[in-house]
Amino acid sequence: MEAFSIRRLIKDAFRRFAGEEAAQWLDGIVFGWTYDKSVAAHVCRPKQLFKDFDIEQWTKQYDPTQCRCRTNRYLSLHSQHTLELFPGSEQTHVLTMDTSIINNGWLQAMLKAGLNHVPLRAYDIGEALYEVDLLLDKLVIVSYDIASKSESRRRKLKQLVLQKAEAKMVGHCSKNRHISAEPIDRTSTRREIDFLTDHFLICPTDKSASTPPFVCVEFIRVLALRKLQGSDFVPLNEDPDPLIDSIRGELTHLPALHVGNGALPHLMTVYKAHKRTFRWITNTANTVVSPMASLCASLLSFLIPCVQGTCEEKSIEMEAEYGVKPNLWWPIASVGQFATNLPQLLFSVYTADITRCFETIPTDDSEHSLVMAVRFFVQLALEYRRDRSSRDVIRVRVSADGYFPSWVEERLQNTGNELFFNEEEIVAVTQWCLTHNLVQMGTCVWKQVLGIPMGLACSPVWCDIYFFRYEYQAMIRFLRTGNERLVPAFDDTYRYVDDLCSLNNPSTREFFKEDCDQITNPIWIYPKSYIEMKETTEVKDGEVGISTNFLNMTIAVSSREQGTYSTSKHDKKKGMSFPPCRFMRFNSNRSIAQSLQVITAQTALILLLCTDPREAAKEINEIVSVMFENGSETQRCWAIVKKLLEGSFDYHPGQVDRHLVECHLRTDFNMD
């Protein structure tokens, strides 16, 4: 953590130098931070493991009976679950969350702090003062009030700030001499990191991204190769470099896209400890396909308001014709959006997970393909737009800060900072991305032919669009086949990517029956050939479940006759088989403000999700307790909570009485 607030120090120095008028000099100026690499940047090396190796030599030499993890040192860390992950195998391998696998005390302590931990650096007052000096020079450039002063006054002002900063630094060093730098760059630590990453994959854990598992390199490569040799991928008989050049050549008509030298995507993985399996992700960051994927996400996201407008118009039209207003737009963007739309009375809850949705969506040109869904989505958006304006061409301004789409009347020539897209060209961007679903492992390249890669910037938007098509068409189909009575049951139905929740709809599961003949029976939502539903509702009394978790919220119906219910925060880290790393450690080399923002964000979320003041107080106390265990001062944490409670209406829609929450915190948990 930083020794003091540099902004406050500069502001106080300005006020002392120029009076109260200087208090406004920093208004509108944001002080940014440049952080050192986190531990994850040092130890998580999926590119080295899955891409930068000789796959042919490895394939010839690999012998599971001679695996490097079979030494006596690691035998106790072998897991029987590796046999389940690779059926037919007779050899177990290392798969553990135990940091005792590390043979360096310093590195072990850093990994226990979490993959998001930024190692502490040695105190260097000279280097820190140099950084402050550079900051003051930048302030002269961005602040007219400072730049308008004479050079001699600016020099005196800088001298005053540097003197105060040095005094603060010296005082901090004398009080905190017990804090030592973490030797992440020491030779012994680097040697241990190289040895560890040569033998084991270290990756994030699902639901606890900062907690590292350790997996045998040879074993995880076997799993990766088996995935690529499955039916979802086909090998390409092309070398990576010519393929990259070819892709770069295909994008010359879009000069604003900065492809650079590029590279092909490679695999990475996340360990799902609660299911003892792995989630495979295609890492497309800084690759030859990432600019087009980001462009695709920008274009499709830009069309969402138009499609939402279409849904509202169509709902009104259907209501006039059939006397029932259908809910045609189910996607939500956050748990907050879900919480603010909860009904006053709740009689039933149904939640389900759309299993393997990324892997099963067809990417060909068939009727149920993603391309057809995107085409349907784009047509709805453009029809809505053309009914209101002659501007039906999207212009995308490209800059270092991202992609900025807007509507224009005419499609002009693409330039170095502007791109133009009509209806067909928007769809063509998706088609291009699907055509280039490539993965490199070693010097070999595979193309994904079924499903969409989890890792593309546009993948979440694609999922929403794919499922939206069937949700929209199902509601219209119910009305047009004389099943109007079914439509109101979906008024409170929501979907977040692949998580579905339907409220006050006791017959929801009837729409997802596997034995439904979807050719003759109109009562279905998603095509069963590609989409599989797994209900996650807790069923009681042999009827519809009255308790379930949806996103970060737990919903419990207390009376199905009266419709009373309660909501609370669902912590996915609770009940795990290992101690998860939670939040940021105080001794991580980050700003105190950033660390304490965890309390602000978590408390605001609790106030949003909880209806019981006692439950909300209990959850907030747990957050403060974890922050204390991580090294933060309890009083500082409670001060943030109290400040938040004073203005809590800015953070939640009023589901819980903040005064009662504060009372419980004071009486039950000694908040002073």
UniProtKB/TrEMBL annotation:
Domain of life: Eukaryota
Name recorded for this polypeptide: Reverse transcriptase domain-containing protein
Source organism: Chara braunii
